[in-house]
Structures are given as C-alpha cells and as structure tokens.
Specification:
The two termini are about 30 Å apart. By secondary structure, the protein is mostly helical. It is globular and about 55 Å long. Helix content is about 80%, strand content about 0%. Helix 5 (about 80-105) runs antiparallel to helix 18 (about 365-395). The chain has two domains: about 1-175 and about 230-420, MFS general substrate transporter like domains (Growth Hormone, Chain: A, Up-down Bundle), CATH 1.20.1250; about 175-230. InterPro entries: MFS, MFS_dom, MFS_trans_sf.
Length: about 450
C-alpha cells in the first residue's frame, strides 16, 4: 500500500497538473510532501515501534493511511492535497519499520528471515510494478482522484489479516528524542524546498531555504550529540560498511523516485502517450521488482549481500546512461525500455540484499529502529531524487530529462564506488554476529 502510493501518483501527474492548474514545482511538492515526512519520521518511528509494540503502531498507521487516502481523493486544491499527503507520510512512517520488526520476530532463524525479507520485498515490488498500470487505468477511466481510492480497501484488508495474536510484539523501553526528530524534518524539508526553488529559478528563495537547511543541520548534529537516546543508531553506524550501505539505499530511491517523476511527463507531454499506455511503458522497470527478489534472496544466502548489491548498482548506473542518451537523441521506445529494464533489474538485486544485510547486523531489540534508519535514508534519497531530477528538467529546457537521468547514473556510480571500497575484504576479516559486524558477508 505504501509503495503503491508512491508509484501510482506518477502516471497521474499530467492530469493532476491540468485539474489543479499547477506547475512542475507544484507536482514536486505533491510527491515530496509525502516523502519528506515519511523519510524524516522514519528516524524515530522505528524506535516508536520498539517502544509501544510494532503491531499496535502498524495497525494505527494503516487506519490513518486508509482514511487519509479517502480525503486525498476529495481534495479541492493543491495546498490541501499536499497537506493530506503529509498525513499519509506520517502513516507510512508508522507502517514500514513496524512491519519489518514483526517479520524479525516471526522469523528468528537467519535463513528463514532472509527468505521472509525476500518475500516482503517481492510483495512490495509487486505493488510498485502494479502502480503505474493501475494508476494509468484509473486515471484513464476516472481521473487522478481515483488513484487514492485504491488504498481504502487495501487498508481494510490489512487490518483484517493482522487481527490475530501471531504478529504481537511486546512493548519496550526505548526512549525517543523528539527534538532530533523535528530538526531532522526541518533539514530535509528545507533542502527539498531549496532544490525545487532552484528548478523554478527562484534564486533568493533557494538561497534562503539552503541557509535554513544548513542551520537546521547544525542544530540536528548538536541535539544528536547531547541526546541520551539519539535518533541515529550509533551502534549500527559504527559497523563496517554500514554508511556505504545506507548510501546505496539512498541512491536506489533517488534514481527510482526521480525517474518515476520525470518519465510520465516525458511520455505524456512530449511523446503523447495516454495514461494507460504510459503505465504499460513502465513494465520493463517494474516487473523485476516483483519477480527477482526471491532469486536475490537465494544469492544472498549462498554468496552474501555484497555481490548482488554491487551488481545491482552497476546495472542501475548503466540504465541511467542508456536512458539519458536515449532521451537526448530522441531514440525510440526500445532504447527507453532497455534503460528501464537495466534499472529495474538493478533495484531488484540491490535492495533486497541491502535490507537483509542491514537487518542482519541490527543489535538485539532494535529491529524497528534499524529498519527505520534504513528506510529513512531510502526515502531521503527518494525526496532528493524528485527535487533534483525535477529541477534538472526545469533548468535543462529540452535536454533536461536527459540531464536528470545522467545525474541519477552519476549518483549510482558514486554510491557503488563507496560501497565497493567500504566493504572490501581485508586479510583476516570476519563477519561477527554483533552490532559491530559488517555488510560484506
């Protein structure tokens, strides 16, 4: 449901812009209003799940998500829609780390947990694969408002399926630093606003938001340094290769969400495809999300997480280059499909392996917080991807879409290089099952 809401909106962008009479900047906020809050609250929502019980937090998030989606379908203006998307971001942040914490408890054996995470990723991937197609069909039949109504029956079904005691998680005693949470949200919101303003060539606005982001970042560091219960899990961050691994998560979502924002505008406005045709055009990108994660899970069990992560990032880099060159040269859909397929395969290799690796070095009793940190990093990447790649489209005129994809390729290449170096094996290196383990196994 959460990931469907990220991809289903992409195909609706042109209809949404025409209906609410908004610009690319307005569309960016309709998307990032969700991901900014989603990303920022994930810093603490994992700790909230650990503190109050993951099953309780999960079900509460599902209720709010379903109700908020219904209200989004009734939004009369862009401002109200963005505000409601913020509410959905809060609910999504409650759902994701709590779901992973419940899986961790249900599957304590490492091999079983790896397969369960792969199934979780495949289910999420199926939602992402269905999003553009479902969105295209709904927009073609009833307009953009219909895409939010899809979440209502899904939310009701999830509440029924999780009504038993099997997913119950006990309460914990983790403390939550709300000051760090608020300042973290300010950092991401100001940074996003600066990029969107720059794309609109509102340079004074961009400079002011950039300065606010720097100031909020300094306050966040100070608050975290003094906090007895920091939002960032320091034990996990000390593990070898974790920082590089988190950069991979950010790069994957930067490329994926940015591409899902840029491509519908290109296909519908420049290549004159309808909503349904646009949704079908995404299949080379989205089908691997649903089909490949179980294969990746088996590779991780046999070879470890590092090989599929590096392979995935290499594929995504190549996909960005192919897409950028295809858009720049005006090549046919076949080249676009190749770039989308490379990108989709890359995501389906890198992401499940990364989730398994990071959860594998989580300290005891912190599965929700660790999942929250990983997903916060990913959604931060998604937010910045929409803002930066959207700004590239605005600033680059006719070649803007090409520059956006080449920017994504550069981000993936840099992240892959950092991960390869940060997880390189050294003589005598091992992979202990402790919070100071590593991601190279």
């Amino acid at each position: 449901m959460v990931l469907l809401d990220m991809t289903v909106l992409s195909v609706a962008e042109p209809d949404l812009a025409a209906s609410l009479r908004t610009s690319i900047a307005g569309l960016q906020w309709a998307t990032t209003g969700y991901t900014v809050v989603f990303a920022a609250l994930l810093l603490s929502s994992g700790a909230v799940a650990d503190r109050y019980g993951a099953d309780r937090v999960f079900r509460s998030g599902v209720v709010v998500f379903g109700a908020g989606s219904l209200l989004c379908a009734l939004a009369p203006t862009l401002g109200i829609l963005v505000a409601l998307r913020v509410v959905l971001g809060v609910a999504a942040a409650a759902c994701v780390p709590a779901s992973m914490a419940m899986i961790t408890r249900l599957y304590p054996d490492a091999a079983e947990r790896t397969r369960a995470v792969a199934t979780w990723a495949a289910t999420s991937g199926a939602a992402m694969a269905a999003g553009p197609i479902v969105g295209g069909a709904l927009v073609g039949l009833a307009g953009w408002r219909a895409i939010f109504l899809v979440n209502v029956p899904i939310a009701a079904l999830v509440l029924v399926l999780t009504a038993g005691r099997a997913v119950h998680r006990p309460r914990g005693d983790r403390r939550i630093d709300w000051a760090a949470q608020v300042t973290g949200c300010m950092v991401l919101a100001s940074s996003t606003d600066a990029l969107i303003a720059a794309g609109s060539r509102s340079w004074p606005h961009a400079a002011g938001s950039g300065a606010a982001a720097v100031l909020a970042g300094a306050v966040f560091v100070l608050v975290e340094w003094r906090s007895p219960a920091p939002a960032l899990n320091r034990a996990l961050l000390r593990a070898k290769g974790v920082g590089a691994g988190l950069s991979v998560g950010a790069a994957v979502n930067f490329t994926l969400s940015g591409g899902l924002f840029v491509l519908p505008l290109l296909l519908q406005q420049e290549r004159r495809l309808g909503p349904i045709a646009t949704g079908l055009a995404f299949l080379p990108l989205t089908l691997p999300f649903a089909l490949n994660p179980p294969v990746t899970g088996r590779i991780v069990v046999r070879l470890g997480a590092r090989p599929p992560i590096l392979a995935g990032m290499t594929l995504m880099t190549g996909g960005g280059v192919v897409l950028g060159c295809a858009v720049r040269s005006g090549a046919g859909y076949g080249w676009l499909a190749l770039g989308l397929l490379l990108t989709g395969l890359g995501v389906s290799f890198a992401l499940p392996a990364l989730v398994t690796a990071v959860m594998g070095v989580a300290p005891e009793g912190t599965a929700g917080a660790v999942s929250g940190l990983l997903n916060a990093t990913r959604q931060t990447g998604a937010t910045l991807g929409v803002a930066a790649m959207g700004a590239s489209v605005s600033l680059g005129a006719g070649a803007g879409s090409a520059y956006a994809f080449l920017l994504a390729a550069l981000v993936c290449a840099a992240s892959a290089a950092w991960f390869a170096r940060g997880t390189a094996r050294r003589p005598g290196n091992s992979s202990p099952e402790t919070p100071t383990g590593s991601l190279d196994e």
